[in-house]
Amino acid sequence: MIKFILIISIGFIFGDSPIKSDSTKKIINHDWKLNVLSLGKGMIPIGQFENNKPLKAIALMSIKFYWLQEFQIAKDISNISDRNRSFWWLLMLNLYGVIDSYVDHHLKDFPNNNKKEIKEEN
User: Fold this and answer.
1) Domain count across the chain
2) In a domain, 58, yes or no
3) Considering 7, 73, 74, 75, which has the largest number of Cβ atoms within 10 A of its Cβ?
């Protein structure tokens, strides 16, 4: 019951009030939510797919899968050193995937100057 009351009160505290909202409200980009979803055991890097980079997404997913298997094996045989190494690799790969997809998303509309430079040289 306490959890239910806590969830309801958090909803009221952080909820958006329709009275205060207007049509000129700033649009907030919540693309980071896609990246947070990729941190679970499913490990599908959704942000990379959203950025139209499926090869990078598949590569990240397969490397994360390998290190997750290494983590499970080391955990089962109680090898603390290998378990910790696997955990750190998983953590770094997850952080890399989140940061990379976030940066790629924000740079997708950035102008590409390489084509202009080539045309000017000719």
Assistant:
1) 1
2) yes
3) 74
Residue 87 burial (CB count, 10 A): 16
CA 38 to chain CA centroid, nearest Å? 5
Per the confidence metrics, is the pTM higher than 0.90?
Answer: no
Confirm whether 76 is domain-assigned: yes
Over residues 14-67, the pLDDT tens digits come to: 555 555 554 544 444 555 566 666 666 556 777 787 788 889 888 888 888 888
Residue located via tokens 């940066």: 103
Domain of residue 63 covers 47-108
Q: For residues 37 and 48, what is the distance between their CA atoms, to the nearest angstrom?
A: 12
Nearest to 47 by CA among 90, 89, 92, 99: 99
Q: How far apart are the C-alpha atoms of 93 and 103, rounded to whole Å? A: 15
Is residue 8 situated within a structural domain?
no
**Structural domain includes residue 53:** yes
